[in-house]
């Protein structure tokens, strides 16, 4: 997306300096130090720049964003004219904070205009990258549920669950996890009755099902559960325990988790994103 950035050399110089001053944490999060980026944005006076950051923080708060998640107080050692050093205030700024600083900065400064172009473009690139990461994670766990479903079905069959009762065995998981049948879960979440429920689950909900199926398979085998009714009952008990674990961890009840977009759309978007990256 570099082609979306202005061609003006002054703009490019500012944007290159902003990029050079970027710090990145081990988890991939980018941040900047206010004292370092101050002059690049055209502010010779620290007090004026600090006020600009303050306006940006107020704008974030007005938009429902907690500014403390994006602006962090710190200190830095500064040099005096006589060579001595003293400690002064500084700030850590996230990408979002820097963007808001640019938006709330002095629009007459060419540096601010360049910063706006930089953060609009780079933030959009970051958003696309984060979306791709989430899409890949959801597709991965969806594939895992396919394997887990087959595995627990096989274990159930070995325990005595007839093929004609497999649907009842699997619905026991829904009764334990949601407190209602799979049909009622679909109705509650607005999922079409012909749609595969797994294809409309988000990552957390899919993970709960994947964990439950693997745990149920292991429990049925380990406890040598035999008999159709016993296997179905055990499957529901395991699901109920997984539900309680979710609630104890502070998660919303699974029946309150919203339906996600169809998994086919996620796959298409990820494919388009991959093609775009190759082109650019």
Short description:
The protein is built from 10 helices and 4 strands; from the N terminus they run H-E-E-H-H-E-E-H-H-H-H-H-H-H.
What labels would you give this structure?
2 domains, alpha+beta, 4 strands, elongated, 280 residues
What would your notes on this structure say?
The chain has helices at residues 9-20, 34-38, 46-62, 95-104, 110-159, 166-178, 182-189, 203-222, 228-248, 263-279, and strands at residues 23-24, 30-33, 71-79, 85-94. A four-stranded antiparallel β-sheet has the order 1-2-4-3. It has ten helices and four strands; from the N terminus they run H-E-E-H-H-E-E-H-H-H-H-H-H-H. The protein is of the alpha+beta class and 280 residues long. The model is unreliable at 1-5 (pLDDT under 50). A hairpin with a 5-residue loop joins strand 1 (23-24) and strand 2. 62% of the residues lie in helices and 9% in strands. The protein is elongated. It has two domains: 2-106, no CATH class; 136-279, no CATH class.
Category by helix and strand content: alpha+beta
**What's the mean pLDDT score?**
89
* Series of H and E elements: HEEHHEEHHHHHHH
Helix fraction, binned, reads 55-70%
What general outline do the C-alpha atoms trace?
elongated
- What's the β-strand tally? 4
Give the total of domains: 2
Please compute the radius of gyration using only Cα atoms.
27 Å
Helix count, DSSP H or I runs of 4 or more residues: 10
Spatial order of the strands in the main sheet? 1-2-4-3
For the biggest sheet, the summary is: 4 strands, antiparallel
Beta-strand portion reads 5-15%
Uncertain regions spanning at least 5 consecutive residues: 1-5
Distance between the termini: 7 Å
